[in-house]
């Protein structure tokens, strides 16, 4: 199988607390995988490892069959991976919605005019055009979550890592996100506590429990 993400015997401790041990996981090309588990078991920590934000783990992380040994190795794949953190309070780098969504694309070298047009299209697709000129920090938590997702999707990463993408969303926004995630062909890892949300995205569900990751 062509794998986008592979973890081999990954173990991780937070201080003196061993969170998980010898975790193995393969996410195939355009495969969607969900991870569930109780609060504090280490789901976000595991996703941060895959997002290249934690280095103090043991075991091996591969992206597209390339062993990632350090942040320098990871840099080669930075445009291939879109990561939505659980806490998005420090996610945004611009003041307004349109500026922030454009900014994501500008970092990949896209010219200003084209970035603006694409950002408008992205807002339309996510049905948040009405938020275009709003100050991000004056938006509600759910609105901010969708804007953050717009900033990730616009760069068309091959891998999406989504940590509780719908935890602040109402039913209709959640439905919109389900439709969007189902319509795009990418490898994804989605962490969520919402069973019905996950089940509408993928049959492949893992549970992190007792320091192990097992098929649910
Ligand atoms: N920066 C930190 N410093 C110290 N401990 C931390 C830190 N971040 C997380 N932890 C601890 O690591 C453990 C795992 O946290 P993590 O956020 O990975 O859990 P989680 O499974 O995502 O939980 P939740 O469902 O609540 O989001 C928790 O016990 C948490 O208290
Ligand atoms: Mg978490």
Automatic annotation (TrEMBL):
<dbReference type="InterPro" id="IPR003593">
    <property type="entry name" value="AAA+_ATPase"/>
</dbReference>
<dbReference type="InterPro" id="IPR015856">
    <property type="entry name" value="ABC_transpr_CbiO/EcfA_su"/>
</dbReference>
<keyword id="KW-1003">Cell membrane</keyword>
<dbReference type="InterPro" id="IPR027417">
    <property type="entry name" value="P-loop_NTPase"/>
</dbReference>
<keyword id="KW-0472">Membrane</keyword>
<protein>
    <submittedName>
        <fullName>Cobalt ABC transporter ATP-binding protein</fullName>
    </submittedName>
</protein>
<feature type="domain" description="ABC transporter">
    <location>
        <begin position="5"/>
        <end position="216"/>
    </location>
</feature>
<keyword id="KW-0547">Nucleotide-binding</keyword>
<dbReference type="InterPro" id="IPR003439">
    <property type="entry name" value="ABC_transporter-like_ATP-bd"/>
</dbReference>
<dbReference type="GO" id="GO:0016887">
    <property type="term" value="F:ATP hydrolysis activity"/>
</dbReference>
<dbReference type="GO" id="GO:0005524">
    <property type="term" value="F:ATP binding"/>
</dbReference>
<dbReference type="GO" id="GO:0043190">
    <property type="term" value="C:ATP-binding cassette (ABC) transporter complex"/>
</dbReference>
<dbReference type="GO" id="GO:0042626">
    <property type="term" value="F:ATPase-coupled transmembrane transporter activity"/>
</dbReference>
<keyword id="KW-0067">ATP-binding</keyword>
<dbReference type="InterPro" id="IPR050095">
    <property type="entry name" value="ECF_ABC_transporter_ATP-bd"/>
</dbReference>
<dbReference type="Pfam" id="PF00005">
    <property type="entry name" value="ABC_tran"/>
</dbReference>
<keyword id="KW-0813">Transport</keyword>
<keyword id="KW-1278">Translocase</keyword>
């Amino acid at each position: 199988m062509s794998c986008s993400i592979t973890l081999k015997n990954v173990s991780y401790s937070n201080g003196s607390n061993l969170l998980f041990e010898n975790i193995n996981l393969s996410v195939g090309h355009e495969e969607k995988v969900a991870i569930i588990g109780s609060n504090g078991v280490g789901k976000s920590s595991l996703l941060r490892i895959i997002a290249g934000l934690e280095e103090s783990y043991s075991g091996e992380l591969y992206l597209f069959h390339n062993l990632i040994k350090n942040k320098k190795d990871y840099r080669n794949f930075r445009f291939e991976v879109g990561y939505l953190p659980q806490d998005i309070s420090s996610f945004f780098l611009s003041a307004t919605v349109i500026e922030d969504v454009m900014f994501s694309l500008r970092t990949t070298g896209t010219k200003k005019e084209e970035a603006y047009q694409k950002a408008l299209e992205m807002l339309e697709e996510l049905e948040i055009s009405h938020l275009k000129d709003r100050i991000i920090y004056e938006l509600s938590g759910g609105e901010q979550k969708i804007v953050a997702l717009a900033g990730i999707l616009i760069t068309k990463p091959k891998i999406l890592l989504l940590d509780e993408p719908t935890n602040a969303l109402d039913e209709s926004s959640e439905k919109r996100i389900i439709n969007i995630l189902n319509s795009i062909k990418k490898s994804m890892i989605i962490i969520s506590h919402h069973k019905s949300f996950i089940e509408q995205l993928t049959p492949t569900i893992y549970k992190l429990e007792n320091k192990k990751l097992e098929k649910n």
